[in-house]
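Check this.
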Amino acid sequence: MTGLDIAVTGLGLVTPGGVGVEASWAAVREGRSTAAHDPVLAAHEVSISCRVPDFDADALLGARRAVRLDRFAQLALVAAREAVADEDRTTWDAARVGVVIGTSAGGGETFERQHGVLLDDGPTGVSPLLLPMHLPNMVASQIAMEFGFHGPNLVVSTACASGATAIGVACDLLAARRCDVVLAGGVDALLNPLTMAGFGRMGALSRRDDPATASRPFDADRDGFVAAEGAAVLVLRRAVDARADRRRVRARVVGYGASADAHHITNPDPEGRGVIAAVRAALADADAAPADVRHVNAHGTSTQLNDLVEGRVLAELLPSRPLVTSTKGVTGHMLGAAGAAEAVFTVLAVEQGIVPPTANLDALDPRLDIDVATTAVPRGIDLALSNSFGFGGQNAVLAIAQA
């Protein structure tokens, strides 16, 4: 391949599967659902969510640090620490290290809590840390301050495509030689009552009684997504530099495609034109043909329209029938973190030669003609795609190849 060639040299994850890459990947590889009834949402029409288990911010970050961070920044900082520890940063030039993080809304938990304080106690009761904890840009700033990185520091927001978009932007920075290393990823922690009430009123959430079977991508009986929280960070470098420095290259990002449906505020274009354009752009970037794709980590939200459009596009564009997975059957939908976490899962699938299963797929939607993995399948994967789509018609597709 002669197009984009960006090495992935570090990985960090905090997901409903667990804190750390090993725990998160084990849950995905085993197809183990993480959805449960959420006490915070007990009064809601839908009370199911996927939360990160056993996340002790005080123990992981120190109580003094943790209390000054919204949960979204806490999750991202822990993921960033793991990703950086996966590399050797002693040779990095801090002035040439950038941070690009995607998030759909920033510190929603802090914003909701402080709005309650305003209503109860008036303006003087509001914390002076409201804005430093709530503003979306603060997550990238906190990561830069943690490690002393002085390169470009960006936060991007393309709804549920935010994490994948951040990786694409990071690849562009590296290809343009604006940076030598970029920490890129995504995060969201929006399982607060206000946000979840909004999703519920939209009719976007699964209403199944059994949480474990609620997220069921591509299944004929799917009825909505399960909202989740999480964070993922990847260390990215130009592949030629990583090899010269004798770094372990876990996989390579070789293509990125982005597009806008320009169709509807929440629904995808039923013809899938934006998705088609993004997939084709990622393949062109990778100098690859559709037949080269061996695996697709699909957006696969478990909503009726999104899964139908994506499945039809995959059948149309990829007649070689690569094995498709939606890891949201396990993790739920991590919103702005989803695209980055699923890019990490795709890196691991390529690196280890394992296509993970799609949980809860009992009967494929008969309108779809795609091959969806329902068990972990050993398979050599030369090239994989990771798809991410968001409200407003935002589309981002990453092409990921072997090291």
Summary: The mean pLDDT is 97. The first strand starts at residue 6 and ends at 15.
